[in-house]
Design goal:
hydrolase (chains A, B, C, D); homotetramer; Isochorismatase-like_sf (chains A, B, C, D); Rossmann fold; 6-stranded parallel beta sheet; Isochorismatase-like_hydrls (chains A, B, C, D); about 250 residues
Chain lengths: ~250, ~250, ~250, ~250
């Protein structure tokens, strides 16, 4: 039973059964991990029900975010053990005149709102999965971490062939990341329990869409197994990994 | 009542009601129209139920495609009357070794299939809305017509500030087009009756997602009214429009 | 007499005389100014002969940089008077492991060098032309300020049709900027006295190449006249210009 | 003695001697070859002096083009023997209204000219080095074959880490290719005898600039040796190379 089964119509199930979609794409030998926008703006500063959380953090995904974080820790633990490059994306604090918000200004009535909680930056990656010195944080203005950033050049420099993507929101920045990664011909995995959204239908259907066409939706356990069987230390000559990064307690 | 209301959960309705989404973004003064992938591969060569159509055309959206076409004609009629630039996208016939398919090869069991019907090219735009000499057809390999194509440069050359997007699939190439157009800060409209998908849930939820964050989902009638009140002939010095394009019967 | 005349061969003069190059491209109605990499790394911290300056600042252009700065001030003065958007580009301080240097690491024997002078950041824009709050500073890793940055989206958001480019080096980041701006179909001007290089032949020939094919090389005086006759305040609804920016003494 | 030595000033030689430029960047293990714009528009249809050739073909590089072609044949011969992917770029025949010419329209007084010789397409790759079925021809509107084309996605799909670039013009499309390839962090070689320009100073100085900063300018012999020691058939599972492509007489 997939998370999307409850949302598909009967016709949908028949059509997608016969159109050849939903084949496993598979992965390559040189993976990287991309954690999209798991910051306080999208998680809230504490685990609380989404309807409470959005009062303070308008983009919050509430409890679902905090349920994903232990899974993200597991995924990152395996990546660190192998010294697989880890990319995070997050937003950029906006100018006071809002110039750099571009189209975002137009589509949200709370867009200029400055709420939050002192001590927690909206664009700060949640501390439970805080980036380490070897990680690369991509600051972005638009949904996709590929758009207007150096991400693609970093991936070509490292010869990455596979991206394991997770984070939030499934229907927003994760979706945009997956389309771009697929379009540049990377093998793409979406790690299901590590990925979340503020919308339940959007979460389910976007996973369905991406699994049908662009990426393999996999469980954390499968992602970890895959990472652990790749060659260790492929990028040691380019990235200075901390001596003991796999044992770091955060 | 919106097409997506049946697919949202109760929590979804509460969350999106309070998070400030779903504001109308509005349009500018220099629009263009983008018709995404309305070719025989995605429509089938005749109007028939989708489950029949996909036997021959694995990507077909069946009847829903053919119901959209008269609306697309109306939209294009208004654009032609104003001499607003019209862009179409469609696929490229693949090499026999499939090299240029890239990631598509991995994700569909019927990807190499050569079916179709003699006389109807899979990448041929449906004749009922055939491009005219002044239109620009963008051939592409990936979901977004911006990816790996000259589309963006054409839009900057013309000083376009608004894209009215329609076509198929809502959850695939239309979605990718909208994300890219939004990311480059164009005002974006999605013309609802002119847009279709093979999946019912995917159609509804992707419209919902895009309307919440990136674009205004509008009716054809509204799009036509908007186009008709823009200044006529803004691009006459750059594009040779046919003398009587608005009256062309196709 | 042009700066490049001394460097061309006789054959060059005949070929370019008959091949139709070197037509004036002209400008549009919505300009922006782009000042490329006029930071301490490329200027040195004081005006001194280039052969002295490069001992401390390996990328320095020496005296030629400091001769350009009063011209850049004039150019920026006119832009501020009209409230024309001003973009600066500069580098990003590298990670200690050099990962983000990418290809730069390979091509310079002094690439990892940390010299400079305390109190002057290599990537700090020279104070004589320091950015104001309304200006947009593009931080970049590669020659072109379009590459891996949000610059293009900002230009489309503002409906810019013309870029006046200056700074350094003519044969490096200015050249890369001009090619990209041309490729996106912007009208491009290069403001001659505001543009400099560490190489004399490279400066002359790159101006020649760009003037022949991609851009109009113009004098500062011409750029100022052009800016002053454009409409004032076109972007006041998007950018909060300081009340008295044209009178700021820096 | 380098081709650029005659064009540099004495100061240039001193500055570049001390600034750390001109280090050999080196190559990787997964090369591809890119032949830029070696078509009849840039070569003319026969070997004749450039001043004659430009009467018919306004972009022609004359005799220098035809002197390069036997070297390009050698380079391609080695690539074919190893089944290294070969990319060509060339232009696209323009619309009759010139819309797709964009900025090119503005900068050349002979831009709309339709001259040429019956039987020789301006955008046709010169027959002596005609593409084979396994080669990939990139059609482009702008100087760089990366701009508005699928080239980058093809390179990431194949895991290419090194581009050997040649063709024409050194100061135009080759230069733009090299900047983009460098910016995406590929190792870049420019094969000197396979590369040409209509301008003598531009050819020399652009090679100098690129060798100093972005690429290794190498002789054909060195490129061939490098190719022959790479692993054969790395891409046989993705590209259907002709059985005997290395022996093809063209």
């Amino acid at each position: 039973m997939k998370v999307w089964d409850n949302f598909l119509t009967d016709r949908d199930k028949l059509v997608f059964g016969s159109a050849g979609y939903d084949v496993k794409g598979g992965f390559g030998k040189r993976p990287a991990v991309l954690v999209v926008d798991v910051n306080y703006a999208f998680c809230g500063h504490i685990k609380e029900p989404i309807l409470d959380s959005v009062q303070t953090w308008r983009n919050s995904c509430g409890e679902d975010a905090w349920e994903a974080i232990p899974y993200i820790q597991k995924l990152l633990g395996a990546a660190r053990e192998q010294r697989v490059p880890i990319f995070y994306s997050t937003g950029i604090d906006r100018r006071s005149d809002g110039f750099d918000a571009g189209g975002w200004r137009r589509k949200n009535s709370r867009s200029g709102e400055k709420k939050g909680i002192p001590g927690f930056g909206g664009n700060e990656i949640v501390r439970e999965i805080a980036p380490q010195s070897s990680d690369i944080v991509i600051e972005k203005l638009k949904p996709s971490p590929f758009h207007g950033t150096p991400l693609l050049g970093f991936l070509t420099d490292l010869g990455i062939d596979t991206l394991l993507i997770c984070g939030t929101t499934t229907s927003g920045c994760v979706r945009a990341s997956v389309i771009d990664a697929f379009s540049y011909n990377f093998n793409v995995g979406i790690v299901e329990e590590c990925t979340f959204d503020r919308g339940q239908a959007s979460h389910a259907i976007n996973l369905f869409d991406m699994n049908a066409k662009y990426a393999d939706v996999i469980k954390t356990e499968e992602a970890v197994s895959y990472l652990l069987q790749t060659e260790q230390g492929l990028h040691d000559h380019k990235i200075a990994f901390p001596a003991d990064s796999s044992n770091v307690t955060v």
